Amino acid sequence: MKEKELFQRFRSAIVHAARLIFTDFRTQYQEERFYSFAIYADNYAGGMNPATQTEEAWQRALATNTMYGKDELGILRYCPDEWDMDYCGVPHHKKEWLDAIRLIEPILDDENLSWEQAVRPTFESMIEALAELDADGFFGRGSEREEITLMIWITDSSLAEEWWAHSIKRLNSDAVYRRFIASGIPECYTAQVR
Fold this sequence. Notes:
Blueprint: H1 3-28, E1 34-41, E2 49-54, H2 55-64, H3 73-78, H4 94-108, H5 115-135, H6 142-146, E3 149-154, H7 160-171, H8 174-182
Helix pairs in contact: 1-4, 1-5, 5-7
C-alpha cells in the first residue's frame, strides 16, 4: 500500500476514534467546561493518545502547583504532560484507537524510512485529524469554538518546541493563539512559529 494512502487511512481512523473518545470525556465530565483537546505522542510517534482538559481540572492543578512560577503557568494550563490523567488516554473505545495506531505502525517500524519520511507525516496527520474534527463542527462554532484550544504535543522531547505552538497556530484562530502565548509560555516554544 502506498504511504500516502496509509496516512489517509490512519488520519480517518484517528478522526473516528478521537470523536468517540472525546465524546466519552464530554459525557463523563458533562458538568465541566472543556478548554483544550490534544493528541500527543513521543518523538517517534509512539505512545500516541488523546487528551483533554477542563477549567475545573485546571483550577485543581493551579491550587496544588509548586513547580511553575507565574510566568510559566501556560505550561501547566496547556501542556498535556501536566494535565490530570483522568482526562487523558483511552479509557473507552480502546479497540478503535488501537486499530488506528496499528495502521501507521508499518511506516513507523520501517527501518528504510527516515524520521522525515515516517514521523513528520504522522505528526502532520495528527494535526489534520484535529482539523477535520474541527471542520465538522465537533468542537463547536463561533464563540463556543473560541473557548477551545486544539493542539498536538510531543511528550518529553525538544520536538515540542517545533510542533506545539505550530499546531496551535494552525488549528486555532489568532485570538486563541494569542491567548495561549499570553498565558505564560516560554519563548523556546514559540520562537519557531511564523
